[in-house]
Amino acid sequence: MSAKTIIAAILITVGVVILAFAGITFTTPGETIQFLGLRVETTHSHFIPPVAGALAFIGGVVLLLVKPRSA
């Protein structure tokens, strides 16, 4: 398989997963805040909207269908 086919398959898979779950939300660790002897761990929440999944899916399909130019 060529690199183009692998990238297209990854884009299609990611697009389908994001669309299936109607967007994906994940959290990453944030800063640790210390105030008056209390230690508070914060997190940052991130959301990948379904539109991004649709664009990834369409991009993967287009990448599979477009033929390379002959020189």
Explain this structure to me?
The chain has 71 residues and is an alpha+beta fold. The protein has one domain. 48% of the residues lie in helices and 32% in strands. It has helices at residues 3-20, 50-65; strands at residues 24-35, 38-48. Strands 1-2 form a two-stranded antiparallel sheet. The chain starts with a helix and ends in a 6-residue tail after the last helix.
CA(first)-CA(last) distance: 22 Å
Number of separate strands: 2
Whole-number total of structural domains? 1
The ordered string of helix (H) and strand (E) elements is HEEH
User: In DSSP terms, counting alpha (H) and pi (I) runs of 4 or more, how many helices?
Assistant: 2
Q: Over all CA atoms, what is the radius of gyration?
A: 19 Å
Beta-strand percentage range: 25-35%
Helix content range of the residues, please? 40-55%
Overall mean pLDDT stands at 86
Strand order of the largest sheet: 1-2
Secondary structure class reads: alpha+beta
Largest sheet: 2 strands, antiparallel
Identify the overall geometry: elongated
The residue ranges in which pLDDT falls below 50 over 5 or more consecutive positions are: none
